[in-house]
Please model this.
Amino acid sequence: MSEPRWLTPDEAEVWAKYRLLRRELQRAQDQQLEQDSGLSAADYALLAPLSESSDGVLRARDLGNEVGWERSRLSHQISRMEKRGLVVREACVDDARGSMVRLTEQGRSVIEAAAPGHAETVKRLFFDPLAPAEAESLGQTFDKILGAIRSSARDASGQ
Model:
């Protein structure tokens, strides 16, 4: 058995800053959405891809994959959103076991009203502090990390 690869002090500091950044940025976004539109982050997470899809409809399985949620969490969130008139479930014509999620007119109005404030928060807190070259470099860094994660996942699944 090989020795564990511990983080260096510099790596531990960067990792701690990343974790703090992720938590604080999510908190700020959640707060902005709730204050400005009454939406939760979970609401927005589902409404955004639905609003960007053709006809405002996605297969539930694809929507879950888009946001990285388990089927149970997705189902509960869709039920909450159905009660508020934001989405409706429909039968999937291609697969009797599957279902489709459709954005309602009310849901479209809500996401269209919420999107500008959300985009402003992202720009103000995430992009405005960075020079364009820094944002580009950060994007490249994210690509490298995502590539490593995907490669590791493929290795673990034997693909």
DSSP finds six helices and three strands in the chain. Strands lie at 57-59, 87-91, 99-103.
